[in-house]
Amino acid sequence: MTAAMKNRIAPFPFVARAIFAALLGVSWQYGHWGPVLSLLLIPLVVMGPSRRDRYGVALAYYLAGSHGLILGSASFFGPGHVPMGVALWLASSVLLAAGWVFADRPWRVLAVLLIDALPPLGLFDWLSPLANAGVLFPALGIFGLLAWLLLIYVALHGLSAYRDRHALSASLDIIPVLLIASLAANMVIPNETRPVGWMGMDLHLGPITRNIMADMARNQEWISQTQAKAGHHRVVLLPETLLTWWAGNAAEVKSAVPMGQTWLVGASVPVGPALLADGIEEVRGGVVDGKGKSGRLIFVSPFPVPVSMWHPWYQGHGYVRSDGVGYEAGWWEPIRKVDGVRAWASICYDQLLPWVWAECVAQDPQVVLLTNNEWWADGTGIPEIQRATAWAWTRLIGSPVVEAENAENR
Residue 379 class from Cβ within 10 Å (0-12 exposed, 13-18 middle, 19+ buried)? Predict the structure, then answer.
């Protein structure tokens, strides 16, 4: 982008733009403001006259938006892990902001957005402005995402080429068309309703404990609550990691599901030596397959929480947290048919990641399942960012949502 153009559109000094960017980052914790306003990060960064300037503005955005990692680490692992939280917060912000150093051309802006969104940086790419596509182009799926990228490119290209009459004319021809498409999409966005007979079950159980008797009582509690509230629903979605899918636990759940009903149970499922999958088991009441099983693992998290769950650099020796158990990454989450409906699931941490949502956009499911386990995250701002991100992407996809969450004990 030319220096002349920067001088024309950059009346604000670095400090003002950095403060504004920080406020944009914090806005993710307040309703839907994060996805709505995140688009503004792009001009704030691009108008920077130097690499250091652009980096500083982007860094302010990520540092302010992800500061909940510090308290989150202390809440999840214990107060002694605050330094680890600080390290994760700084490292992720520094890395995500790095690409914006080069964002001085329209195509480079798109490249930075996509590079940040894809692994390896995409493994912790919170606060991605890509979520804004769901705000501007709801229910348009992959076409909405492409339209958003085109809008960003054309708008920036028009600004950078304002002295080139032909380039400016082309931009002025395309931008109104895209804005009209955005307005039309927002005016006619369908009122999607969940499939008839489906429900999500919110619980207040807190975490699994190391006390076997307490966990048995905990299982009986959520099973009885689900039986009482499920009524005549055909499909019941339950929260993430409600239990470990041992034979005894699995048998108890299978025997509890009423005839004609399907429970989608969030569970830690053993898949290998000292390795679990953060997944969803489909359990159909009264149905047993040829192998004597009434349940099947239908969804596996593409990327469980790094460090706390996914840590391939460290091999545990058991199946409980104290043994250093690890979780596998599924990487790709395919659509599965549940009760004849094409369903796709986003499990907890996955809801923060653009590349996981891109998998959903590409497959266009009939219903999106959201499962969470937020007992540890109260006051960190992380659940709010997660909800805002999920709202934006499901809005882009245009499919109804069924959600189930486990929060702290009341």
Answer: exposed
